[in-house]
Design brief:
25 strands; 43% helix; 682 residues; alpha+beta; four-stranded antiparallel sheet; 17 helices
Length: 682
């Protein structure tokens, strides 16, 4: 062992670049594929790595810093709450000066927010003095805005600003403690112009029931529920206001227009990670935004990078109550991004600023993604190729390459790229072009093949089938006749079910129907067109899928027989089984047609596929009702009641199976753990 350690150290020294590249956190790519791919996370090489750490000493040390702002020229401004000042750093994080820590009207008290306009004017949420303090670019105090005394602001409103943002017109958007009405909006003169971006009250089903049942007097005695108050606000270059709310998971991040409309509620692409500890948002010049999440969780992701449409792309970083490594934070409160795409994060507990530098891989993927989202696909091609040389798991890269191939007329290549990205919408668009080209070039061959198939069936197969039927064994002929009866039952259910009532069908007939059901189900899993079934076929578990498919049928047979026996039904178990299998013939007949259509149609024509599926199950359900009525000799109303009770019984059977499975697992696990302890300590 003593010889092994030096050897191991020598081997590690051969790879210094990898050893130095290790980060104290993992980076994940978030894939939002459709269907079986779903939303999945993949471990990824670093998009951002730990950079400069700013920890001041003596008079430059921060104490309970509460807000960070990165100015247009990359200067950093920190609201140093515990020291009653605002600190300014240069673009490299070097101390420049402090603002508001002198005497006079410009003295600050526990400031919690800071904002700097492009002209250098500094706005400070002077929380302790309940005002917005304004300083010139050189740090000279200009004016202060307290609670507006005139206008529409309620006289009882308690004005205590904690965050402030200012748009290009000079309108201030202020977060005030306890302001459940939303942000306080004030114009450049400090006049109140209304509340903005308020949250909605989260009502439960019990609250709705109370409003329906309770009287006005009873409702008046109920505790008044108020919507959650906003916690932070950021304005991007386009004038949109990003509002974050801590303590909720729904609408924790909103992108508001000047009219207060949340853009993310109208975008299908908006997919946010659930967290109730969203602290801040930073935006770059290409409409990507970076969400700071201070929740300590198992799935590390302190910073999430989102596309302009609100789709989470990457997550990295780590939050720990007692961090032991540089780059791991304790209580992050603010985030900003400079012109070099360097991220700065402010940690209140540790009193430090932490920089994260974008890697070459991160620059390639985010630059390509930015071009992709604005529709400049060809410009992004070089970066996408670079991204794929780093990592082939980035689904967005395949979507980008697919768009490039589509623009260049390489339709099949585009389809393949969209398939890999599980992007069935764009795949459908590319397939429409491919199908049109195929029809235009091969229409004559298609018509000839159809005519040949019809002639083959009309003049050869029918005659061959007629001759073959005379020499087949009796048992095979019986199965054929009974299968024809099953087919006939689809169109003449009462007559068909009466024909098999009391008969003992061949077990080979029943087995053939079950095999047909299993075969069609398997075909639907693997052969349904990608457009309507965008699943990762390698992840399909056919045995489990078939078991889930047949379980309701088995439960219906058992439950219907038991319930009907109690209700004096005439049907035997064999009758219920045979008629139930016959009732599923529409699935066997129509599902292959649905599979074929799914491989020919595009999404816009999907109504045909969905309608056929609906028809299949409605038809089978109707046949099950008719079969129960015929087999048990019930009246119509009596049969409906019996079928409803059967459905309830099926639910009880599944509940019993779930409880039994859970108890069995717990008992077996207990015995196994007991065995392990006895083995270890025995």
């Amino acid at each position: 062992m003593a010889r092994f350690v030096p050897t191991l150290l020598a081997v590690l020294l051969l790879f210094p670049e990898y050893a130095s590249a290790w980060q104290p956190y993992d980076t994940f790519y978030v894939s939002h594929g459709t269907g079986g791919a779903g939303t999945r996370t993949y471990w990824m090489q670093d998009v951002y790595t730990v950079g400069t750490t700013i920890v001041g000493k003596d008079g430059q040390a921060m104490k309970q810093p509460s807000d960070l702002f990165v100015a247009a020229d990359d200067r950093l401004f920190v609201a140093d709450k515990g020291n009653d000042r605002v600190i300014e750093y240069d673009s490299e994080g070097r101390w420049t000066r402090s603002i508001g820590d002198g005497e006079g009207d410009g003295a600050l008290k526990a400031p919690e927010g800071v904002f700097v306009r492009p002209d250098g004017t500094i706005y400070v949420a002077d929380t302790g003095h309940q005002r917005i303090a304004v300083f010139a670019a050189d740090g000279t105090f200009l004016q202060a805005f307290g609670k507006p005394e005139e206008g529409l602001m309620p006289p009882s409103y308690f004005f205590m600003p904690t965050k402030v943002s200012v748009d290009a017109r000079g309108v201030m958007y202020i977060v005030s403690k306890g302001s459940y009405q939303g942000l306080v909006r004030m114009d450049g003169k400090g006049e109140f112009t209304g509340f903005f971006g308020g949250n909605r009250t989260a009502g439960t089903w019990l609250d709705r029931l109370k409003r329906t049942v309770f009287t006005k007097e009873q409702l008046a005695k109920e505790e008044l529920k108020r919507p959650p108050e906003p916690s932070n606000a950021t304005i991007d270059d386009g004038g949109y206001v990003y509002v974050t709310t801590t303590g909720v998971t729904a609408d924790a991040v909103k992108k508001l227009t000047a009219g207060g409309v949340n853009r993310f509620t109208r975008l299908k692409t908006a997919q946010f990670a659930e967290s109730d500890q969203i602290a801040d948002v930073a935006t770059d010049g290409r409409d990507f935004f970076y969400v700071l999440d201070r929740k300590e969780n198992k799935w590390d992701g302190m910073i999430s990078i989102y596309s302009p449409g609100g789709t989470q792309l990457f997550a990295f970083g780590r939050v720990r109550k007692e961090p032991q490594q540089r780059g791991v934070l304790s209580y992050p409160v603010g985030i900003g991004i400079d012109s070099r795409h360097r991220l700065w994060v402010l940690d209140s507990d540790q009193g430090l600023l932490q920089a994260y530098d974008r890697t070459e891989f991160g620059d390639a993927v985010l630059t390509a993604a930015a071009d992709y989202y604005v529709g400049d696909y060809e410009k992004s091609e070089q970066n996408w190729n670079k991204v794929m040389s780093y990592n082939e798991l980035i689904g967005l890269a395949y979507s980008g390459m697919g768009e490039i191939a589509a623009k260049q007329g390489r339709t099949k290549d585009a389809m393949e790229a969209f398939r890999i990205a599980y992007d069935n919408e764009r795949y459908s668009d590319a397939y429409w072009t491919y199908r049109l080209e195929w029809i235009q070039s091969d229409l004559g061959y298609i018509a000839g093949a159809v005519a040949l198939a019809w002639a083959l069936y009309r003049f050869v197969l029918r005659r061959f089938a007629g001759r073959a039927s005379k020499v087949v064994p009796a048992s095979v002929g019986r199965v054929g006749r009974e299968l024809r009866d099953a087919w006939r039952t689809m169109f003449h259910p009462f007559d068909g079910f009466y024909r098999i009532k009391g008969r003992k069908l061949s077990p080979f007939t029943l087995l053939a129907i079950v095999l047909l059901l299993v075969g069609v189900k398997t075909a639907s899993l693997y052969w349904t067109g990608f457009i309507f079934h965008p699943y990762n076929l390698d992840r399909i578990k056919p045995v489990s899928e078939i078991a889930r498919f047949l379980a309701p049928l088995a439960a219906w047979v058992v439950a219907n027989y038991l319930v009907s026996t109690v209700k004096d039904g005439e049907g035997r178990f064999r009758d219920v089984l045979q008629s139930s299998l016959f009732a599923l013939m529409p699935y066997i007949a129509l599902m292959p047609l649905s599979i074929a259509l799914s491989r020919l149609l595009v999404l816009e024509e999907g109504i045909l596929v969905s309608s056929l599926a609906t028809l299949t199950w409605l038809w089978s359900g109707a046949l099950l009702l008719v079969s129960s009525q015929v087999v048990h000799n019930f009246e119509f109303v009596e049969n409906v009641k019996n079928s409803a009770i059967t459905v309830v019984a099926i639910g009880i059977l599944f509940l019993f199976a779930a409880v039994t499975t859970g108890l069995t697992y717990n008992v077996s696990d207990f015995i196994y753990q007991l065995y392990k302890e006895a083995t270890v300590f025995g």
